[in-house]
């Protein structure tokens, strides 16, 4: 890691000069579906009795930045020769003059995960500093990034990229895979160490050192990127017949003061950024709550198998904010959800910022949230009052699972910014043992209301705090 940090520190004093790969038109013009037909057929470390293998991506479609990828064997760095013959192109019509020195645009790792002894892909690094992972029986969904800069700012977002990668060859029987990366951008450089384990879930330990070339508007640590189109009365459906289409349903946050928050994700009509101030955060993440096929009805998309992703800081991150950015979309192919940590103070230019965190990509939420929590959010318009919204919140899990319905559970519901709570009631579902809050709320026409709700029993908090930015119903 020290060698990569030295490279990042030296890089910050140089002029930023990216060199996009000279990509032939055949590759540059490929759609994502066509690009996915290109496969590396000869994995690195194949037949070498290693617990992991690596495959590589050609440049093409949206991926134009070069990555110099090397392997580290017993402490010594070796080049990974490029061989165009290692790649198959499916049913694409490949021109005869395709260059033989294209180089690499990214890589993915494989392990005997789902169908041993066969190796299965479980993590992919491709494009900018994006990477995404799956555990056993999951499919790709939410992505992570090494760093985000100025998301949803008027000046435009800046996308750092990994320009050099080192893959540490694992020994036989190793439980984890180590990857080093050198990051570059017009405004920041960085050094990264990823320690990756896979199984029922995939865990990534991230150690990073960032150097700013110059100040930025928003420095974004541990960013996650996901997609929310519609579902549960939220988002713009525009004629789609599926009951829901999204990679994640909720943002969950754990503050250092012991409070847990659940914020259902939305697909707004306009760009929407919401901040949650925190001190000594315990974690945050994007959760896919519903795991039933019937909730999505997507035979191809399999949203019930998209992983939740949790960020757990290592060390004290101090004061800052979790920021959620929601962009409007009308299709499932656009990632429109960003969430990240913004520290209260960014480092001065050329001064190192060291930070570390653990990522977990998982299907089973069991054990993550200590309290009962919102397991469903449904929104609708109230037909009796112009602008009013019907809000339905289901709380389940935790101690609520075995709590009888005759217990004096109380709902605490508040609405800010001049909104009026016109009615509310609390119901108990005896079959599935959850509590349902049903409320009619009338926000001000000009400004949304921050609505919060949680349950107590004999003054003891029983659940996460549900929070949402509620807009008035449109005519």
Automatic annotation (TrEMBL):
GO terms for molecular function: carbohydrate binding; catalytic activity. One of its GO terms (biological process) is beta-glucan biosynthetic process. SUPFAM superfamilies: E set domains, Galactose mutarotase-like. The keyword Methyltransferase does not apply. Gene3D superfamilies: 2.70.98.10, Immunoglobulins. Keywords: Periplasm. Pfam families: MdoG. PANTHER family: GLUCANS BIOSYNTHESIS PROTEIN, GLUCANS BIOSYNTHESIS PROTEIN G. This is Glucans biosynthesis protein G. It comes from Acidithiobacillus thiooxidans ATCC 19377. The gene is mdoG.
């Amino acid at each position: 890691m020290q060698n990569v940090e030295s490279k990042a520190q030296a890089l910050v004093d140089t002029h930023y000069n990216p060199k996009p790969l000279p990509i032939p038109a055949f590759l540059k013009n490929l759609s994502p579906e066509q690009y996915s037909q290109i496969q590396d057929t000869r994995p690195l470390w194949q037949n070498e009795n290693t617990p992991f293998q690596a495959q590589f991506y050609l440049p093409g479609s949206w991926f134009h930045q070069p990555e110099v990828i090397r392997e580290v064997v017993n402490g010594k760095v070796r080049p990974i020769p490029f061989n165009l013959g290692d790649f198959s192109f499916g049913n694409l019509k490949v021109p005869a003059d395709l260059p033989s020195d294209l180089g690499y645009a990214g890589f993915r790792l494989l392990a005997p995960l789902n169908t041993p002894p066969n190796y299965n892909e479980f993590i992919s690094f491709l494009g900018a500093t994006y990477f995404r992972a799956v555990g056993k029986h999951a499919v790709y969904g939410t992505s992570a990034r090494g760093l985000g800069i100025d998301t949803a700012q008027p000046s435009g977002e800046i996308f750092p990229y990994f320009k050099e990668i080192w893959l540490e060859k694992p020994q036989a029987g190793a439980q984890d895979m180590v990857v080093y990366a050198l990051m570059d951008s017009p405004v920041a450089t960085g050094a990264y160490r990823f320690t990756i384990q896979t199984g029922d879930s995939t865990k990534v330990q991230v150690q990073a050192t960032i150097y700013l070339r110059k100040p930025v508007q928003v420095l974004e640590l541990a960013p996650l990127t996901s997609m929310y189109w519609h579902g549960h009365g939220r988002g713009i459906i525009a004629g789609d017949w599926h009951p829901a289409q999204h990679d994640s349903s909720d943002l969950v946050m754990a503050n250092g003061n012991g409070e847990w928050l659940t914020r259902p994700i939305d697909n707004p009509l306009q760009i929407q950024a919401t901040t949650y101030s925190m001190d000594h955060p315990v974690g945050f993440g994007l959760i896919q709550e519903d795991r039933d096929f019937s909730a999505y009805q997507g035979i191809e998309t399999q949203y019930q198998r998209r992983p939740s992703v949790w960020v757990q800081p290592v060390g004290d991150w101090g004061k800052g904010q979790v920021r959620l950015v929601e962009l409007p979309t009308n299709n499932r192919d656009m990632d429109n959800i960003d969430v990240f940590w913004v520290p209260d103070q960014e480092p001065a230019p050329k001064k190192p910022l060291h930070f570390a965190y653990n990522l977990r990509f998982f299907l089973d939420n069991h054990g993550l949230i200590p309290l009962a929590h919102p397991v469903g959010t449904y929104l609708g318009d109230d037909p009796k009052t112009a602008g009013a919204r019907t809000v339905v919140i289901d709380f389940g899990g935790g101690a609520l699972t075995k709590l009888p319905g005759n217990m004096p559970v109380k709902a605490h519901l508040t609405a800010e910014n001049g909104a009026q709570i016109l009615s509310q009631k609390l119901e108990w579902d005896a079959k599935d043992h959850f509590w349902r809050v049903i409320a009619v709320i009338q926000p001000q026409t000009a400004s949304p209301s921050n609505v919060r709700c949680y349950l107590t029993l004999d003054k003891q908090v029983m659940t996460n705090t549900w929070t949402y930015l509620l807009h008035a119903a449109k005519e």
